[in-house]
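From the methods appendix. Each design record in this collection lists the tokenized structure first, followed by the designed amino acid sequence. Records were kept in a plain field format so they could be parsed without special tools. The example shown here is representative of the layout used throughout.

RECORD:
FOLD TOKENS (361 positions):
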């Protein structure tokens, strides 16, 4: 039957053209041509009306089938073209991720911070807590409570920066000249037993290759009913060995005077200077590294602790000095120049925190 053959030809032709349409405009033109008001399929639909009932019965379903399949093919093709267009657009607009990235600049840990971390580890292992105090102190905490008599020349040896501001006693405030006022603060707020260290900034009018107006100290204080100079010595030996990572060190206690300790001793550590560099834990030379002694009964009394019942020891060391000795810097001023080249050379990885188990430095 010709009408049916024509329908099959028309369908094949339309489907082939749908498949071949390569953009949405061409597909739309094809849709109008076939299914629009004047379209070829619409024209055939209109023809149905003039057919005999038998013809219509046979031809109608075939024509409807053709219309459905062509419509469906156009819908499917349209979706495929839209997807392809989107793909092409995404490809065209893609960011070139192969550009070289800007390298982040990784900072380093300053040797002073590193050494403080190491010392906190070492003394932490020995049961010391870490206390803190402010850089600006009262005259009482920095001097008077520590048994410096008023107007006494010992105050002068500290080259103190006095401030115009007054404290609650009407005395000039000071930039603390040592970390010892943190002993006072701790004893005033805490009952014995006390076993603490404190680390931080200290200030004195002084400036050359081994002195800067701002420097760092570590302070240690132990107060209980039994601690003696022998305990002081054993703690210091253990700490110095751990810090310098040497198996053997010699310490020499030299009599000295501090207003806040009695007896007082300066402590020298055995070293070797023959190689141009100071080597701790070898040789026959001595290097002074800290001040120490048994806390003076007047200091205990000034801080509300009964000197008849309690006793203990204290020690103080320069942290910057410890860093220079361990890590081989020879000019202290460079510590505070904030020169990133120096920091890159002497600084420590921020990813490696010191710990006794893996070695400190
Ligand atoms: N505070 C002393 C100083 O800076 C050091 C020290 C501390 C001495 C504790 C003895 C006991 O010189």
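DESIGN:
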């Amino acid at each position: 039957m010709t009408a049916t053959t024509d329908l099959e030809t028309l369908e094949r032709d339309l489907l082939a053209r749908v498949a071949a349409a390569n953009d949405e405009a061409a597909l739309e033109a094809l849709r109008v041509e076939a299914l629009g008001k004047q379209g070829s399929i619409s024209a055939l639909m209109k023809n149905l009306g003039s057919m005999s009932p038998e013809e219509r019965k046979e031809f109608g379903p075939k024509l409807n089938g053709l219309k459905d399949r062509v419509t469906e093919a156009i819908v499917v093709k349209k979706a495929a073209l839209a997807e392809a267009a989107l793909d092409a657009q995404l490809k065209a607009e893609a960011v070139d991720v192969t550009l070289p990235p800007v390298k982040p600049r990784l900072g380093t840990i300053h040797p002073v911070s590193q050494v403080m971390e190491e010392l906190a580890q070492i003394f932490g292992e020995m049961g010391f807590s870490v206390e803190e105090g402010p850089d600006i102190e009262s005259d009482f905490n920095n001097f008077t409570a520590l048994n410096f008599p008023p107007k006494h020349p010992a105050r002068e040896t500290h080259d103190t920066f006095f401030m115009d501001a007054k404290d609650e006693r009407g005395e000039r405030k000071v930039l603390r000249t040592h970390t010892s006022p943190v002993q006072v603060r701790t004893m005033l707020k805490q009952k014995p037993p006390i076993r603490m260290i404190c680390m931080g900034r200290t200030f004195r009018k002084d400036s050359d290759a081994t002195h800067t107006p701002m420097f760092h100290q570590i302070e240690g204080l132990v107060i209980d009913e039994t601690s003696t100079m022998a305990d002081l010595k054993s703690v210091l030996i253990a700490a110095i060995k751990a810090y310098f990572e040497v198996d053997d060190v010699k310490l020499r206690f030299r009599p000295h005077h501090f207003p806040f300790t009695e007896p007082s001793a300066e402590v020298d550590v055995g070293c070797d200077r023959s190689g141009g560099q100071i080597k701790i834990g070898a040789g026959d030379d001595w290097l002074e590294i800290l001040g120490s002694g048994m806390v003076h009964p007047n200091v205990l009394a000034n801080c509300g602790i009964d000197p008849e019942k309690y006793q203990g020891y204290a020690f103080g060391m320069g942290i910057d000095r410890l860093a220079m000795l361990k890590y081989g810097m020879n000019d202290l001023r460079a510590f505070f120049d904030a020169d990133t080249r120096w920091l890159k050379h002497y600084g420590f990885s921020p990813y490696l925190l010191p710990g006794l188990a893996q070695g400190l430095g």
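APPENDIX NOTE: The first strand starts at residue 129 and ends at 131.
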